Amino acid sequence: MKLCFRPITPLLLFSLFFTLSLAANVTYDRRSLIIDGHRKLLISASIHYPRSVPAMWPGLVQTAKEGGVDVIETYVFWNGHELSPGNYYFGGRYDLVKFVKIVQQADMYMILRIGPFVAAEWYFGGVPVWLHYVPGTVFRTDNEPFKNYMQKFMIFIVNLMKQEKLFASQGGPIILAQVENEYGDYETVYGDGAKPYAMWAARMALSQNIGVPWIMCQQYDAPDPVINTCNSFYCDQFTPNSPNKPKIWTENWPGWFKTFGARDPHRPPEDVAFSVARFFQKGGSLHNYYMYHGGTNFGRTQGGPFITTSYDYDAPIDEYGLARLPKWGHLKELHKAIKLCEHALLNSEPTLLSLGPFQEADVFVDTSGACAAFIANMDDKNDKIVEFRNVSYHLPAWSVSILPDCKNVVFNTAKVGSQTSIAEMMPENLQSSEISPEKDFKALQWEFFVEKAGIWGEADFTRNGFVDHINTTKYTTDYLWYTTSLHVDENEEFSRKGIQPMLLVESKGHALHAFVNQKLQASASGNGTVSSFKFRSPISLKAGKNEIALLSMTVGLQNAGPFYEWVGAGLTSVMIEGFSNGTKDLSTYTWTYKIGLQGEHLSLYKAEGLNRVNWVKTSEPLKNQPLTWYKAIVDAPPGDEPIGLDMIHMGKGLAWLNGEEIGIYWPRKSSKNDECVHECDYRGKFSPNKCSTGCGEPTQRWYHVPRSWFKPSGNILVIFEEKGGDPTQIRFSRRKMSGVCALVSEDYPSFELESQYEDENESYKNKATVKLKCPINTRISSVKFASFGTPTGSCGSYTKGACHDPNSTSVVEKVCLNKNECAVELTQENFNKGLCSSATRKLAVEAVCS
């Protein structure tokens, strides 16, 4: 084959650049955004740039695009950029311009939610902590200091985008920008300052002249021309506050966040698809998944408090950057089906047809005669058969069928035909290969350093009584020592009889370790529902002077709610019961304070700080020792799969690799008594507690360590353990897709959507098909289960039904074995369709990828 290349001339280069950077005119009317005169039906995906790393960004954007996404959406994280007044940072994970340009290079649009308040389960809602300490400042109300700093940051970001020509009006990808965030829900609480602030924010944004529309989500009184938008699990019933504004859904939550010690929430793909289909059925034109990739709260960036380091969100792309199947695949097919209806949806008025008490159809016919229909069954218990245009259609409960030609169903939200992938965390022993001629691996050598419980170095200050934790640390650290001393008479009854007195502590949050005479006595914490806590625990006191050292800890910062910046943390009461003259109230004692840990102060997790203490070298490090720093030299795990740090055998603390902040680890278990499900019933409205798993298990066991943080060898892993664990059990785990499954019924729509309508004269043929695909560079090595007939169960637990074609496995093996991907059609040529003819037959397959 002869390949011909056209020479690149300066004229061609100019023409190419001009085409790529051509300014776009973005307007809107009641039906949709209009870009260069063309109406757009848009699918958007939230990916937060600082919750992943730059090396992941191109892959995340590409996976979203392959999933049928047109737009990438992100917040702008003020406190990640303005580290102190006027001191800006845009490096590493905070390289906003680079992220936007990656979206542009993928030929996708961008929604920039500048805020700059973002909530987002991000510490302090994205607002800099330092701003709270500017005299006279009150967040998010008609307050001059707050508005002044907010406007300065908004102008800085807008000008940065303009300098890089990133607004669509300049030829860039940004088609919408957002000011403020979900403020309408709190306006009544903020009182007289609320409405003036909201209107000021809108006017201030409009004055930036960015050339694209502004939006305000959950802002019911957003002034023209700012578009108010919806955030919820369902937005089909949302109506903009003006008949001239399009219906936009800025946050559809396809999952939910996790808090340490709580269950793992999941939202079924059937319900996510149902909500999206209903939105477009009822006039929506721009829909955004929050989140499409949740990512990781690296460092100490989580909000809540108590939000986990993982921000996976049960999103279509998981925390590690892998497509979550079947959710990603099911939504991809949904997007294809909706796009087939785009012209009719955006260029006609719908006709609503009632087909039953909970069944209805919306029919769209444009001027060319093109017809599309969405038929919905809102009954959350019962399947229904409805008559539409003299044809009978079976509708599963709580589902929508999409008919791009008003005749043929190409997609039903309840029928998941996309494959399920089996993702596993495969453990790898921590290894170190010191430079030597043999390059042999040897046993990992740990080094450790134990901190003193209480005041290290000079005390920061003393006070009678307690100070607020957050006001004292200003979130420069999670840790604050409260210390005092107590004299015990040798004649106290508990001293003579060996009875333990009781320590009673009350705290505004978030967690605490109690030490007496350098010994850990008790630990306690709040949770994601209630940050404050009380606890009562026996302690050991000796005759004479006793040193009481209480280590108070934050676990993220409040990120939302009215006047959230005033929510404090730290001790409010300390008492000891058991003395002969009654309970001793230590709350009024003189307390000495120390901010942070000695290891933090010395930067033991950074290369320049590693030699500032005398590490103790040992092949058997201290186990179950509180306040201990551990260090080891490790190699990168083999392969290219994403990596998680397995901390199941540790207590609570912080971790770093090569100075990069992995974040807070805390394998805190949820209650065994919580209500969890083995299989979720997708039918009916979703809430975060509906489909939880993980009861009695750690909320988070593995902690994402991006591949780009590793060197081939000589990586420095540093752990700070607060209360005690076994570092010899720490493992890296590779996240691998080890198998694939699918279960498809004969009545499932065909997903060959593109070819379906290439030839209008071709008769519709529904060929239900099981499609399997292994990760790149792997193949289907074996078929663990295959049954055509009436199989039941879910991936990993399929069972044969009363009806089963004995040739099922051989048929699937013939088509799929030793292939990266395959498609098995449910046809007479492949299977015995004489079996169980009275039942709806299915094909279930589980295969191994290697």
From TrEMBL:
InterPro entries: BetaGal_gal-bd, Galactose-bd-like_sf, GH, GHD, Gly_Hdrlase_35_cat, Glyco_hydro_35_CS, Glycoside_Hdrlase_35, Lectin_gal-bd_dom. Residues 1-23 form the signal peptide. Residues 764-850 form the SUEL-type lectin domain. It comes from the Eukaryota. It is found in: Secreted, Extracellular space, Apoplast. One of its GO terms (biological process) is carbohydrate metabolic process. SUPFAM superfamilies: (Trans)glycosidases, Galactose-binding domain-like. It holds the Pfam family Glyco_hydro_35. GO terms for molecular function: beta-galactosidase activity; carbohydrate binding. It is an enzyme of class 3 (hydrolase). Its main location: secreted. The keyword Hydrolase applies. Its EC number is 3.2.1.23. The keyword tRNA processing does not apply. It catalyses: Hydrolysis of terminal non-reducing beta-D-galactose residues in beta-D-galactosides. PANTHER family: BETA-GALACTOSIDASE RELATED. This is Beta-galactosidase. It comes from Davidia involucrata (Dove tree).
